[in-house]
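Hi R.,

Here's the chain you asked about this morning:
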Amino acid sequence: MSFLEHLEEFRWLLVRSTIAILIGGCIAYYFSDFIFDTIIFGPKDGNFITYRFFCEMANQYDLDKSFCIQELPFELQNRTMEGQFSMLIWTSITAGFIVSFPFILWELWKFVSPALYDKERKNIKLFIFIASILFFMGVAFGYFVLTPLSINFLANLTISDHVKNAIDVESYIGLVKTTSLATGLVFELPIVIYFLSKLGIVTPQFLRDYRKYSYVIILIIAAIVTPPDVISQTIVTIPLVILYEISIFISSFVTKKEELKTI
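And the predicted structure, written out as tokens:
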């Protein structure tokens, strides 16, 4: 196809993906009470499953007890007239994107598949399945681990007793959505490395050379969002380290296959 024909295909990809997101958003809008009361505001409750888990771990191993709480020391408030309506719409759209993610992957695959070999095109179901599982695992990790850790840390951080935390609800919801969605996309790292390795942009040696720097960054992030104990930091660090190591393995596998094709 010509360049303009590729642009036309890409335009229809965006149109179909947008329609899928809007349909998912309408479904989310219908269940908005459950989404807000149970999911969005779940990490604000001191009885949230993550807090209970860390509290039990702290009691069992005599660690930091900062998660053994009944209520987080802040309240939420809306400061603008259209604020709640805007948050309802954008939260529904975000939920629609998460729900329709496998369909968006299908559309992206159809767009890039003409540039792939026949054998690679046959793996479409496996690709969509693995990529979707990684994304949903990332969203779950972001929501159940990183989000409550971040909320607990930020809610208890005070610069003075004169300052009370009356948090804008838009800021709170933004933290929950951004953390969960961003982590879901980060968990797509092995998929991204796969394609970058096929294009020759990333090599396994490059990933190995920068492994120690990546580990330092991961440890810094874990230290910031967790209490000052080894177990909490390890729970955050391990999945990210595993993802990085899987990416190295994938890059090595792809690079070897590409080298065999040139022989």
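The longest strand covers residues 75-77.

Let me know if you need anything else.
M.
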